[in-house]
Amino acid sequence: MVKSFTEIRRFNEAGLDAFRLFIDGSDEQCVRTLFPEEHLTSPAYTEVVMADIEIPLEGVVTKFDLGKSFVDNLSADQLRVLMSDNDVWPWINAFLGELIFRKKGNRFFTGATSRHIVERIGGRSSESHYRHLARSAVRGVMRYGEAAKVLLDGKPSEHSKLLEQIASRHGFASSPELVRLAERVYFDPTKGKVKSGAKSMGRGGIHRLIVVFEQLGRVYDVTAMNSDEILGILPRREFSRFLPDSVAA
Predict the structure, then answer these.
(1) What is the maximum alpha-carbon separation in the chain?
(2) I need a labelling partner for 187 at 20 to 30 A (CA). Which of 16, 39, 96, 145 fits?
(3) What's the CA gap between 92 and 117, in Å, rounded?
(4) Which residues of the chain have pLDDT under 50?
(5) Beta strands 46-50 and 103-104: pairing type?
(6) Environment class of 198 (CB within 10 Å of its CB; exposed 0-12, middle 13-18, buried 19+)
(7) Between helices 13-24 and 88-96, what is the axis angle to 10°?
(8) What span, in angstroms and rounded, lies between the C-alpha atoms of 70 and 206?
């Protein structure tokens, strides 16, 4: 089990090719062994981006924990360096090992390539940053702070439906207050997890919140409102089971 990062590396072209071959060569999105550990520090495959750092991983249970460990232990300048370099993130995923490649029987689950390598989707110019498991965790905490818990409540190896729905929509993703709204509506602080039914397509779920948000945007400038103001105009009957007690009545 990995205990901490003491350096950050990036894959060079040969390293990225080897890692992509590792992902693409999986059988039903599973592999029998993790990416070879010796490749992670080999100058034939990698180069150092940051040295003499300490990012502890002991106690990391959720994606939020993972993102917070990076944000709490790196400077703003160091975080900006990571965010500007797509090729550090495949290396970070590979280094994280079982935290990212969860055990499935006697094999390790890889999932889609976009979970590990930042790619373009269907030729579009926008890149799939939010689909990368480690990068989305760090970026979420950088951007939204504690409110990111609602987006990053699952394990580091899991892709969150709430994150997918919010991060893929620029109106939500660009406003910390709108993410704060989702956190207040769907995150249960007493249980430390997302409320049951929040990810559904039914009444009051995240899909409906997005539809209602878009409808309200035709009448109000919701992107300029804070979470209290938006809570005040949400339809009570539909969202009552998710709303905080102070506003549900």
Answers:
(1) 63
(2) 96
(3) 10
(4) 125-126, 249
(5) unpaired
(6) buried
(7) 50
(8) 28
pLDDT at 1: 57
- The angle formed by the CA atoms of residues 131, 173 and 89, to the nearest 5 degrees, is 30
Smallest CA-to-CA distance from 163 within 117, 121, 126, 210 is with: 210
Write the DSSP symbol of residue 235. -
* CA separation for the pair 204, 138 (Å, rounded): 28
Predicted confidence at residue 158, as pLDDT, reads 93
The DSSP letter of residue 34 is: P
Orientation angle between helical segments 63-73 and 133-144, nearest 10 degrees: 60
Give the containing element (helix H, strand E) for 108. strand 107-109
The end-to-end CA distance of the chain, in Å, is 48
Q: Are 212 and 235 in contact (CB under 8 A)?
A: yes
Q: Is 83 exposed, middle or buried (0-12, 13-18, 19+ CB in 10 A)?
A: middle
H helix intervals, the chain? 13-24, 63-73, 76-83, 88-96, 133-144, 161-167, 170-173, 176-186, 206-216, 227-233, 236-239, 245-248
Query: 150 near 102, Cβ under 8 Å?
Result: no
Burial status of residue 241 (CB atoms within 10 A of its CB: 0-12, 13-18, 19 or more): exposed
